[in-house]
Specification:
The complex is a heterodimer.
Chain A (H helix, E strand, L loop, with lengths): L19 E8 L10 H16 L8 E6 L6 H7 L6 E6 L4 H14 L6 E8 L11 H4 L2 E2 L13 H16 L3 H15 L13 H6 L2 E3 L2 E2 L8 E10 H4 L7 E11 L17 H12 L8 E4 L4 H10 L8 H6 L16 H4 L6 H12 L33 E9 L2 E9 L1
Parallel strand pairs in A: 2-3, 2-4, 10-11
Antiparallel strand pairs in A: 1-8, 1-9, 4-8, 6-7, 9-12, 11-12
Helix pairs in contact in A: 1-2, 6-10, 9-10
Chain B lengths: L3 E5 L2 E5 L4 H11 L4 E5 L5 E2 L14 E5 L3 E10 L13 E8 L13 E5 L10 H4 L7 E10 L2 E8 L16
Antiparallel strand pairs in B: 1-2, 3-4, 3-5, 6-7, 6-9, 7-8, 9-10
The chains are: A alpha/beta, B mainly beta.
């Protein structure tokens, strides 16, 4: 009997390519120990995004945010900034939420519910709810479905995803050294990002020689835990023309697309295949482009392996060749298709995906906030010298893809282009 | 039936009184008699307990005895425990085991993949010298960790009676 399967109807009238834009991005500092509530952090980031867009707080009439019970509702953030919202929703979710919420924002604007949506994620992932799962989360009573995983000491994200990572090595011969290149390249990128929490450059050997957390993950295969808030502003391409920044247009989105049975227990295989295998069948047709058209990627790096697996399953290389792809130099600055030029979750800070979208928006504006000198027009004069402490702007970048990850079975993605 | 509250390695575990699927599942485990739900309409087995058949969406199911034998499909070996309960047992192993029953059905990459720790035959977490002997391909059999009346956790131990493969796959770095 065939599995229940839904064919995707991406027929022409549904395309909203280039009809919506991200007009503002903002964030707090990336810290460990913010000494602020998530309410204060969220307010700060949303305000920065509004200012970045050249808007007033009262221009925002829609708000979306996501959390796992570790943040502050849009009601407080919008109220604190004096907004009157026509639409808001607080969504449960972590990684993969950003791109999915952009899709929702487009939908609610298209449906006439509101005009301009701010999306934020505010979290004290180090000083309050540890995103690695230690602290209060590790001591909570186990009930229901948790009896089939957490009761076995199978709880944190790394522990949960590890069977997929291990099986990929078994199925395709992927090596620890190949995957460690992800950390090496992202750390080089972070060294050119003044706001990155970790700016130190690491080698492949540094990763392999760092202590084991849970096989196949060494300490340096894992992302950082930080306190921060991030925000983006979505509105129509028409309104974007009146905003301050060069418009960045949204080509297409796929939101929280799943493997069969939302496979949290790995019943459906191959378990070395992730949700991108399914999501790409929506992303590329909706966007009208393919992987070969993409200049930069933002493949979620909760772990080195997640970056590799997604790039592979979205079709940036052949199935099974993700290890070769990430170790080839393609994902580094100066390479064919740099990934996470901010340093991503491995180095810049952990925000459940939004900082990777912010980075690609800035890349597409050709205005990344690196260490290059500022010219008379107030803009960075990019040198394209990617040595330590230098530039991280990618030359002539036109099209980007963000690949958001919740877990092996759930992912979201978005293609953007320079307007 | 009332719910169950218990502790395992110091961790609080709870099955709510309305959670009939899990109460039934763990009741069989407590009798050291592994059962899974078999769909009343299409007959397929499923794991872990759920409220409908993932292949035909029928709500009704019957508990069917299933042999606890299989092959390690993937694993992780935890060196840095997150939960305090496991700190004294590192490195401990989490196994995903393909049951022999219904393997490769209804599609080639599907299996009843039953999670559990690598244990000694008496259901205690395996010490490091045994952890080092297990990898993808190892033949294992089910044992149980008794937690409370009506609640035992299914676990895995090396199947000494089975023919083991010539080579198992382990992560290259020990």
């Amino acid at each position: 009997m065939p599995l229940p399967r839904q064919e995707v109807d991406a027929s022409t009238p549904k395309y909203l390519r280039d009809k919506y834009a991200i007009v503002g991005v903002g964030e707090t500092t990336y810290t460990r120990g913010s000494d602020k509530t998530t309410r204060a952090l969220g307010t700060w980031a949303v305000r920065n995004a509004v200012l970045d867009a050249g808007l007033k707080a009262t221009d925002i009439d829609g708000m979306l945010d996501y959390s796992g019970g570790d943040s502050t509702s849009a009601t407080f953030i919008s109220g604190d900034l004096g907004m009157r919202l026509n639409f808001y929703m607080d969504v449960v979710g972590g990684g993969s939420s950003t791109e999915a919420l952009v899709g929702i924002a487009i939908g609610v604007i298209e449906a006439g519910l509101c005009k301009t949506v701010a999306i934020f994620r505010a979290m004290n992932g180090f000083s309050q709810v540890r995103i690695g799962g230690t602290g209060a989360r590790s001591a909570a009573p186990l009930v229901g479905d948790m009896l089939h995983n957490r009761a076995y000491g199978w709880q944190s994200a790394g522990q949960n995803f590890a069977p997929t990572f291990m099986r990929h090595m078994y199925d395709y011969g992927t090596t620890p050294e190949q995957v460690a290149h992800v950390k090496m390249f992202h750390s080089r990128h972070a060294s050119n990002n003044p706001k990155a929490y970790y700016k130190k450059r690491f080698t492949v050997e540094d990763v392999i020689n760092s202590r084991f957390i849970c096989k196949p993950l060494h300490l340096l295969d894992c992302c950082v835990e930080t306190d921060n808030a991030t925000a983006i502003i979505v509105t129509t391409a028409e309104r974007a023309k009146d905003c301050k920044q060069h418009p960045v247009l949204i080509r297409g989105v796929v939101g929280r697309c799943n493997k069969p049975r939302l496979d949290m227990h790995y019943q459906h295989g191959p378990i070395s295949t992730v949700a991108g295998h399914y999501a790409k069948e929506i992303l590329w047709p909706n966007s009208g482009v393919g992987p070969e058209d993409i200049d930069i990627t933002g493949s979620y790096d909760a772990f080195t392996f997640t970056t590799m697996l997604q790039l592979e399953d979205y079709g940036f290389c052949k199935k099974g060749e993700g290890g070769q792809y990430v170790s080839s130099g393609a994902i580094g600055l100066g390479g064919r298709r740099p990934n996470n030029t901010s340093g991503g979750h491995l180095c810049e800070g952990y925000t459940h995906g939004m900082n990777m979208v912010i980075e690609n928006v800035r890349q597409l504006r050709h205005d990344v906030d690196d260490s290059c000198p500022v010219g008379p027009d107030g803009k960075k004069q990019h040198t394209y010298d990617y040595s330590e402490g230098g530039c991280r702007q990618v030359r002539n970048v036109e099209v980007s893809a963000n690949l958001g990850w919740a877990n092996p079975s759930t992912g979201s993605a978005m293609v953007m282009r320079r307007g | 039936m009332t719910g169950i509250q218990a502790t395992h390695l110091g961790m609080p575990l709870r099955i709510d009184d309305l959670d009939h699927e899990n109460l039934d599942y763990f009741k069989h485990c407590a009798a050291h008699d592994f059962h899974l739900q078999a769909c009343a309409a299409c007959g397929r087995l499923r794991y872990p307990p759920t409220t409908a058949c993932p292949w035909c969406a029928a709500l009704e199911s019957n508990w069917r005895k299933v042999e606890g034998k299989g092959t390690v499909h993937s694993y992780t070996e935890v060196h840095h425990a997150i939960q305090p309960a496991f700190r004294d047992f590192t490195p401990y192993m989490l196994l995903l085991v393909d049951l022999d029953t219904q393997k490769g059905q209804p599609t080639p990459d599907e299996a009843l993949r039953v999670a559990g720790n690598l244990c000694t035959p008496d259901g205690k977490l395996a010490p490091p010298d045994i952890v080092k002997r297990v990898g993808i391909g190892t033949r294992v059999r089910m044992v149980f960790s008794d937690v409370a009346e009506g609640l035992s956790l299914p676990q895995w131990t090396i199947d000494q009676a089975a023919q083991q493969p010539e080579k198992i796959w382990r992560y290259p770095q020990e």
